[in-house]
Amino acid sequence: MTDTAPIDPYAALQDKEPPKAPRSQWKDVWDQFKHHKGALFGGGFLIFITLAVLVGPWVWQVDPQKLDIRNKDLRPIYTAIWDSTAAVRWGNPLGTDNLGRDILANLIAGGRASMAVGWAAMVLALLIGTTVGVVSGYFKKADFWLMRFTDLVLSLPILPLLLVAVTLFRQPLRANFGPEGGMFILIVGVIGLTSWMQTARIVRGDILALKEREFILAARSIGTTSGSIILRHLLPNVISPIMVSATLGLATAIITESALSFLGVGFPSDFPTWGKLLADSVQRMEQYPERVILPGLLISLTVLGVNYLGDGLRDALDPRIRGR
Amino acid sequence: MLTFTIRRLILSIPTLLFISLVIFLLLQLAPGDPMAQVPLTVPPEVKEKMREALGLGQPIHVQYWKWIVQFFWIEPQVLIDHWFGTTFAEGKQRVISWQTRSPVMDIVVQRIPQTLWVVGLSYVVGILIALPIGIYSAYKQYSVFDQSGTFITMIGFSIPPFFTGPLLIVIFSVQLGWLPSIYDTTHVVTDWESFKVQFMQMGMPVMVLALQTTAQISRYMRSSMLDNLGQDYVRTARAKGLKEGVVVMQHVLRNSMIPVITVIALGIPAIFGGAIITENVFKVNGIGQLLLTALFANDIPMVMTLTFIFAILIVLFNLIADVLYGVLDPRIRYD
Hints:
By secondary structure, chain A is mostly helical.
């Protein structure tokens, strides 16, 4: 008989390994999101550009409206690499326009306007879309008419109507809120009011499915009111489709604002936005191609980043794909 | 199916009437005055007469009713007269543009060929490029082709036409000098040389618009193919020894085309209206450019009619897409 170590009958019960922190849903989402390279780059670029236009005016303290007619039509500093005769100046690293306004400062100021319009219009569209979707999914009586209304708005020709609305309401809003504030309200309003329909449809579909589930029945059986069922139980469950349509909404809002500015119905002429900078430079793009390319590149990269972010979010938030 | 189509057709009438009312009321709020261009030496009472001649003095509901009658009753008669040489519409008031004082529909008919040529062709080109890309990148999912295809479609999705347009002009017209930057509408194709000129001038607008179409449709095609490639019937088809080409190009492709065809149908109204920006960049005087100039000139009858034509097209093609979906996919039953 050899000596064996005494067996502790309770060893299995005394698990020494500390329990792992419980996995939350958002940690799972992040783990999946990390694997989508494009989404990481897209999200990173969006954060970078948002910070750049927010902090930019303090770092690059040149007034975008300051006229410096002696230094007009400067080329960006990098053109000196291949063209030694180009007029460049370290004071204006991206050159100046035909009135001597600094292009870098204008791009930062224009980015502020474009991003502000994009975010505000997206939030407005989300608010309307979620409200319509939740109400029509939860309350049977409202469903028919709200969905008919949504279908109707979906069949309106959006871009022509946007143009009509902007040209028509420009004067009264400018008179009430000033040229810049009025246009901001108008553009955010028209973009928000014409882009909520997809969100409403998706949210309605999800709510319709969710409200038949047991946890809603349980909540109702203990006397929870409709309002708090919606706020506490339904909305947290539809947050993922809302987030995905938020990214799509941001992308369309930025593009629509730039398109309106490009067609000349956007902000007043001395108020730079990316679309407006691009539109103003098209006339002389043979001599100064960078004035078209720089704002165009910023619009495209931002929208590309936002679209990739949306793609990654959609994958990360879908529990069927997650973990693969 | 037939009852469904008829019911949808009948339902679309109140929809269209409501849309026309919305557009009409929106335009009623317009601050612009069509008499603003008239010289100041014209006395006010004469101006008032001119305004009445345009039908402006009447109450709103009378104006709306007159527009409805002109658009739905008199304009079709004009069309019938044009086709059969009859005289139904003789002496009746048509929808008149305030800019040119000529009937709106005549101008629209003049402008439609340019839009159809440029935008319609770009749609066809875009679809023809998009379908093979979508099919192949779904078949070789996560391959290099798929990754780069997805990246390119993402770019096409994200770059707005008012950037690609000027960019192409800088590259192909300014730097290389290959293509003209302005579309010449008066150009007539008579022989090979003039056909080449026409081909060159259509090149860039078609490229810009086709990039957008390609991006959209190849994404749909890819995801639809991916949905179908994992289905059981594909495994069955392979198991019974069908060739890979037959499995993919006949079994899978035909089933994946169902949602793609409806997406293609839904995109057709955009051919007529959505190319406003591209037509503006390349100076193509089509429908979109007509709408833009009419808007800036406060030409309300023109704007009203054009926007409403777009609305009709959207409603019509929504209906066509739904019906097509039901016809192509026997699993869908509208009851």
